[in-house]
Design a protein that fits this description.
- By secondary structure, this protein is an alpha/beta fold.
- It is built from 13 helices and 21 strands.
- Strand 20 and strand 21 form a beta hairpin.
- The N and C termini lie far apart (44 Å).
Length: 322
């Protein structure tokens, strides 16, 4: 089911890795019969592994390759990289449809999927607002002029792990057009939001919701699902799962050992078994959780600047240092 983006038809494609694909899977691809499938496997065995998809292109008829490429993304990565879904070379990606940007202060994640923007975090701040403009490639005099004439950048969703400062939320909404806001407890905003113009409008449109596991944000081959919100001794712990295509990414905010145990017992715990990457703020995941999730790749967000994903593999960009 295609979705529209950037004026072109978009559909996530399943990935075929030439260095792990089985002969049975090859025979399900258009134009590949038993003999050609065996030739492909023999080529791989003789060479140890495919280095790039062009080798595959050279041993199958042009029409066969073209038909396969219409429906699949073809990769030549190591079995280890395919299992972890992490590639060391950005050029292994077919595209950068999904970009995840890590912000250190306050801790936040900005997700840029196709032409849509989502923000996950603890609190709001001017630093976060300015960082989002940078991700969008907006800045300088042109941005000032656009804002002067009433332009607002558009966010699909703002997901907060704690109740925000009302003045800061009002300032945020004055600069961004937000589709919905998800927070742990909407009571404070409901009780005092009428005093703020932008917040009041969001409340009237029923765009502010309590943050809970049954809520999720979905799109074509894309989902953001709250996994574990809980209030403990005044410090909020939260976990959210992002899924795009074959890649599941778990974001953990202040999740401790006790939280992990409870999280693995939630209704959505089975989704954790599909996690390929865990990104953590503060406490690192335990061995128990990583084994439960199938030994995913671990990212300390303080060290990572961003990651990019085409729905099958991920490239992690290190944080730039001054």
């Amino acid at each position: 089911m295609p979705a529209e983006s950037r004026g072109v038809e978009f559909m996530h494609k399943e990935g075929i890795n030439l260095n792990t694909v089985t002969i049975e899977k090859l025979k399900t691809l258009p134009g590949i019969g038993d003999n050609l499938a065996r030739s492909i496997i023999l080529h791989r065995e003789l060479k140890s592994e495919f280095v790039n998809p062009d080798e595959f292109k050279s041993i199958v008829p042009e029409k066969v390759y073209s038909d396969i490429a219409k429906n699949y993304n073809i990769y030549a990565v190591s079995p280890f990289a395919w299992k972890s879904r992490i590639v060391q070379d950005e050029f292994k990606l077919y595209n950068r449809d999904l970009g995840v940007y890590f912000i250190g202060a306050p801790p936040a994640v900005v997700i840029h999927f196709l032409d849509k923007l989502y923000v996950l975090g603890f609190t709001l701040s001017p630093n976060l607002r300015y960082t989002i403009y940078g991700i969008l490639g907006e800045g300088g005099l042109f941005l000032t002029l656009k804002k002067f004439f009433g332009w607002k950048a558009s966010l699909e969703a703002l997901v907060l792990a704690e109740t925000p400062d009302m003045n800061e939320l009002e300032s945020f909404l004055s600069e961004y057009s937000v589709g919905r806001i998800l927070i742990p407890d909407s009571g404070l905003i409901v009780s005092s939001g009428s005093a703020y113009k932008n917040i009041s409008e969001m409340l009237m449109l029923d765009k502010i919701k309590a943050f809970a596991p049954f809520l999720k944000i979905t799109g074509e081959s894309f989902e953001i699902c709250p996994v574990y919100p809980i209030q403990l001794t005044g410090v909020l712990s939260a976990a959210l799962l992002l899924r795009y295509g074959e890649v599941g990414i778990l974001f953990m905010f202040n999740i401790g050992a006790g939280d992990e145990k409870n999280m693995m017992e939630t209704e959505v715990s089975e989704k954790l078994r599909a996690v390929k990457i865990i990104c953590f703020f503060a406490a690192a995941p335990s061995n128990i959780l990583t084994k439960f999730c199938g030994e995913p790749f671990i990212i300390k967000t303080a060290d990572a600047g961003a990651l990019f994903c085409d729905g099958n593999v991920v490239y992690v960009q290190k944080r730039k240092t001054a």
